[in-house]
Each structure stands twice: as structure tokens, then as C-alpha cells.
Amino acid sequence: MYLKKIEIFNFRNIKKLDIDFNKNVNIFVGDNAQGKTSILESIYVLAFTKSCKAYGEDELIKKGENFFRVKGSFKIGNLNKKMEIGYIDSVKKLKYNDKNVSKIADYISNLNVIMFSPDDLDIIKKSPIFRRNFINTELCQLYREYLIVVNEYNRLLKIRNDYIRKNCSNIDYDYLDVITKSMASRVVIIHKYRNDFFDSINEFIGDIFYRISKIKGLSLRYKRSIDFDSFSDIYGYYKRNYSSDIDKGSTLSGPHRDDFCFYLGDDDVKLYGSQGLQRMAVLSLKLSEINIFKNVKNSYPIVLLDDIFSEIDLNKRKNLLRFIKSNIQFIITTTDINNISEKLLDKSTIFKISDGTIKKRSEKNGQ
User: Fold this and answer.
1) Residue 321: which pLDDT band, with cuts at 50, 70 and 90?
2) pLDDT: which is higher, 317 or 123
3) Please, are residues 14 and 8 in contact by the beta-carbon 8 Å criterion?
4) Would you say residue 3 has pLDDT above 60?
5) Which tens digit of pLDDT belongs to each residue from 270-302?
């Protein structure tokens, strides 16, 4: 899979921009706040319908305008595909191959994207909700069923919480059982996908981390709030905890309370790792996903790297470059072209960007 072209209208600080991509390495060079990250963010929004940052759709519209639109054409094997997202008057409009799409589940997962940015340190540093959002985002790309089931679970969770909160003194346990059984059936499926995802990540992440940092022993540990896999065990767990949930007016356990942690040997990276080590841990996680996407989707994802080379030392930069392969499309931003090796530059299309516009394009070995 690779992105052939993107058209951006009124997105962040970009008025209008058309970009034709090399199917291997594309590098955007420019000072901060010139639009480099906005280009990567627009690709992310095209794929996911939402920003990789904590922005609402209204905040993505260029100041002084009343809409944004992002259109992209990409190739999977021998097939040419098109996607489009528009947002005007608080309404999001999606198209796939020029046809309107009404269901998110029919749109997401068509364009597969992995993005690494400085903000990804939040996956380690911040609260479990950031890590759960990460898990859900990646699994929704990989599996349409997961997207459907996790949305059903969240809908049932809201119904259950609203019911026990409003009826705490007069609970109809038959009704509560019906909701809880429906939730438990979804938990079984969510656990299966998440367990498999972490098992797959741990097949790769230790080796990738070692190849970049020369430190052994990185792994992820999935921490579930319900440590059961079968429907009967999960449903039984919920029933045993009815009184606690009713007292708190909330469902205290389930996938919405799960977490995961990075460990280096027996040490929690959040507690004992330096910021540089944490950055390499998250990067190793993202690079591990490349293999998983290839195995599941039979196609490599598009990899977006936002200003990564300025954050790591020369040796790690050299080690990282070994992962930039000719059969995977990388779209990279940097403030300083000198942070990137001549070997990589020789096979890259280079864009110079200033104030939301591309001033010059040079192609050393493009198509």
C-alpha cells in the first residue's frame, strides 16, 4: 500500500495543497509551524476521520474558513483506490471510491497508517485512557469486527451505567442481567483481539528495540481489569460485583478499564526509564506494528514519522534507518536535512515547505 496523491483544502494552516508522493521515501523539510506536521495530520485524518491530536473537527479548519476537505488516492497491489473526508457545518462527509459512506466501519481500515510523533510519549507518560485509545485505534484499522464490537460494547456500557445510576434503589435485576450478558459477550471478543495483538507485538518489539538502542528485554504487559476469557466466567464476575457497581453508579471493570505497560526486564519504563528510552520504546512499538499489518492485511501500512531524527542521537539514527525499506512508504518531516543521511536522501523525494505551501521540490531518485 502506498499513497499516490493527496489534496488538502483549508486544513490547519494549509489553504490548498496538492502533493504527489514517491512510493518509498518522502521527506518534508521546513522550520517549525510551517505546515509539515499538518500534512501528516491530514493523512491521519483521511485514514481515521479524526485527528491524532486532541483536536475537534472545528479546530482543524483553517482560520477564516468554514470547511476543510482532504482527498487521497492510493494503491494496494494493482488496485487504485480513493478516499475523501470533508467537514462543513459540523457535518462530516466521507467518500470511498467516489461513493458516499455513511458508516465509519465501512470507511476506516481501507487506508492503513502508522504514525509516530513527539506526542506519542503520552502513551507511556499519561493516564490509561491514552493507552486504551491507542489499542482501539490500531485494532480498528486491522479488524472491522473489532471496530463494530468495541462500539457496541461502549453503547451497552453507557446504557448500563445510566440505568444503575438512575435506578440504584429500585434495580430490575432481570433487565440488568440482559444488559450484562450482552456486554460480557462483547468482552470475550475484545479480550481475544487484544490478547492476540499484544502477543504479536511481543514477538517483534524486543528485537526492534535492541537493534535501535542495543538494550535487551523490552516487552509489553497487558493488564486486564477482568482476568477471564470465557463468557460464563466474565458474566459470573459481573454478577458477583453487581452491588459494587450499583453503589458506585458505574461499571467498575471491563475493557474500558484495561491498561498496558512497557517493561524493560522487570522495570516499568514509565517509572524507571529516561525520556530518551521511553521515546525509543514507543517507536519500537510502532515499528513492530508494521509486521502485524503485513501479516493481517497482506499489505504494508504507510508510516508517518514526525520530526523523529532531531530527537535521537547519531548512532540510534543510523540504526533506525535500517528499518526504512524500499517496499514500505515512509513520509517523514524534519527541520534539518542534515539530520538525515545522504544514503536515505539519495532515494527520497524531498519537499521544502514554508507557510503551508511547497516552495521547491527536488527528487534525487523518484519515480
Assistant:
1) confident
2) 123
3) yes
4) yes
5) 999 999 999 999 999 999 999 999 999 999 999
When pLDDT is averaged across residues 336-352 and rounded to a whole number, the result is 88
- Strands 302-306 and 330-334, sheet pairing: parallel
Could you tell me which residues come within 8 angstroms of residue 316 by beta carbon, excluding any fewer than 6 positions away?
A: 212, 213, 280
| Cβ-based neighbour number of residue 265 at 10 Å | 10
- The dihedrals phi and psi of 272, each to the nearest 5 degrees, come to -120, -5
**What percent of the chain has pLDDT above 90?**
83
List pLDDT tens digits, range 154-194.
999 999 999 999 999 999 999 999 999 999 999 999 999 99
Instruction: Report the alpha-carbon distance of residue 305 to residue 194 in Å, rounded.
Output: 25
Instruction: Give the pLDDT of residue 52.
Output: 87
Q: Match 459481573 to its residue by C-alpha cell.
A: 238
In angstroms, rounded to a whole number, what is the distance separating the alpha carbons of residues 243 and 212? Answer: 50
Could you give the CA distance from residue 111 to residue 72 in angstroms, rounded to a whole number? 10
Look-up: residue for cell 520504546? 281
Cβ-contact 351, 27 below 8 angstroms: yes
Cα-to-chain-centroid distance, residue 97: 23
CA distances from 159 to 132, 146, 166, 247, 253 (A): 20, 20, 11, 17, 15
Q: Could you identify the residue written with the cell 522550520?
A: 31
Pairing relation of β-strands 91-96 and 79-88? antiparallel
